[in-house]
Amino acid sequence: MKNTILIVIILLSCTIFNTTYCQTKKITFFLNSADSIIVSTVYYRDKMTQLPNINKRDSIGNLQFEELADSVGKIKSRNLTNSEIKEFIKIIKKPSFNHSGPMEYDIQFDFYNQGVLMQSATISSYTKNLVIKRFGCKTVLDKENSEIDPCAFYGMVTKKQKKYIIELLIRKKLWNMGDKFFEDL
Questions:
Q1: How far apart are CA 112 and CA 85, in angstroms?
Q2: Which of 4, 33, 13, 18 is nearest to 134 (CA)?
Q3: What is the pLDDT of residues 37-63, one digit of tens each?
Q4: Distance of alpha carbon 40 from alpha carbon 79, whole angstroms
Q5: What does the alpha-carbon distance between residue 148 and residue 40 come to, in Å, rounded to a whole number?
Q6: Rounded distance, CA 133 to CA 130, Å?
């Protein structure tokens, strides 16, 4: 019995260490090469929450619906200065490794290297989700033929990150003084 408990504790410790180490290494990998960053406030509409458009009726009078897709519209955008880029990258490298539900977001950071979009970080002021994706990567299969996306990080912003992001958005005139993260309402 004692051996079983000890084995479970050791395996659990190894799993937690491996997950944290991999996620930390992964988040560092994403943010090293940006020479410019554009921050945007966006309007995101999930295809699951939109009402479908009625296209037309078929020959017997049944309604036909248009296939919907997620849509993202940028509301406002601003470039970050070199000092803001360094500070943002330093702050964003230490996320929370939790992740909550829906993928909707309203804040987006686009990372460019020599004018080419390399990655983006999206943040939801509703769920505090942080999703960082690197472009041009391919998914790989693990031993069980399950897809692994080595080019994406899913986590949540910390209180320190949230405070910094709000201050940055206010400074860039992308956030009104009355705007808040959902948890602050």
A1: 11
A2: 33
A3: 999 998 876 665 555 565 666 667 666
A4: 9
A5: 28
A6: 10
* Contact (CB, 8 A) for 78 and 138: no
The predicted pLDDT at position 166 comes to: 93
Helix/strand/coil (H, E, C) string of the chain?
A: CHHHHHHHHHHHHHHHHHHHHHHHHHHHHHCCCCCEEEEEEEEEECCCCCCCCEEEECCCCCEEECCCCCEEEEEEEEECCHHHHHHHHHHHCCCECCCCCCCCCCEEEEEEECCEEEEEEEECCCCCEEEEEECCCCCEECCCCCEECCCEEEEECCHHHHHHHHHHHHHCCCCCCCCCCHHHC
Residue of higher predicted confidence among 27 and 74: 74
What is the per-residue pLDDT across 11-35, written as a single tens digit (0 to 9) for each?
Answer: 444 434 333 333 444 455 556 668 8
Q: How far apart are the first and last CA of the chain?
A: 49
Choose among 166, 148, 27, 13: nearest CA to 95: 27
Contact 22, 154 (CB under 8 A): no
With beta carbons less than 8 A apart as the criterion, state whether 93 and 27 touch.
yes
- Amino acid (one-letter) located at 6: L
Q: What is the mean pLDDT of residues 115-133?
A: 91
Distance between CA 33 and CA 85 in Å, rounded? 11
Separation CA 77–CA 79 (nearest Å): 7
